[in-house]
Amino acid sequence: MRTLLCWTTFLLAAALGQAQSPAHRLFDGRTFTGWSGDTNRTWRIEGGALVGGTLRNTVPRNEFLCTDRAYTNFVLRLRFKLVGTAGFINGGVQFRSQRAAQPPNEMVGYQADLGDPAYWGSLYDESRRNRTLAQPAPALVDQVLRRNAWNDYEIRCEGRHIILKVNGRQTVDYTESDPAIPQFGLIGLQIHGGGVAEAAYKEITLEELP
Question: CA torsion, points 97, 44, 198, 103, in degrees to nearest 10?
């Protein structure tokens, strides 16, 4: 009986291991390996973080740093900090997205949004439907968000189901109803144009799901 129990436990553990891969780092904290974008003027590595924009002058246009490979079902976790002094202070995390053909600096797809007045923790459709698909109540944002400081973002995608969490609190539970919308693509980090602002991202890990 003990042998049978041990063997059953082993098979269950093996099955779980096959069904769910461990999380791996998308950013090594030191180099742009695995990422593509404007690393000459817009993006830099500072204090173990990928930082876009500047507090010295206005960011002229949207810029994205994106992964070199695409993902479908996953749990993406990272830390972000958005700061700024003037203009439109905004950033975001693209997922299941593609590079736009024109203009080439843009991305098309879902974005886990960042910024005031009502973008924190919301789901935006970038350069496609160009609107917010789902957003949390302002009272929830005020409870969970640490403005001008580091925060945790979790993005979970399984099939057409998307869940966003900020600092462990769920802000979006969305199911895509349009079958024409692709459910795979690149991960991207945004600094929005039009603000004197910096968006920083670090500790970026991704766990692929079946």
Answer: -40
Residues 167 and 170: their CA atoms lie apart, in Å, by 9
**The CATH homologous superfamily of the domain defined by 22-208:** Exo-inulinase; domain 1 (2.60.120.560)
Domains of the chain, by residue range, sit at 22-208
CA nearest 199: which of 107, 88, 69, 106? 88
Q: What is the mean pLDDT of the chain?
A: 92
Residues 93, 77 contacting (CB under 8 angstroms): no
Closest CA to 42 of 58, 29, 53: 53
The model carries a pTM of 0.90
Predicted confidence (pLDDT) per residue in 168-207, tens digit = 999 999 999 999 999 999 999 999 999 999 999 999 999 9
Q: Are strands 186-191 and 63-67 parallel, antiparallel or unpaired?
A: antiparallel
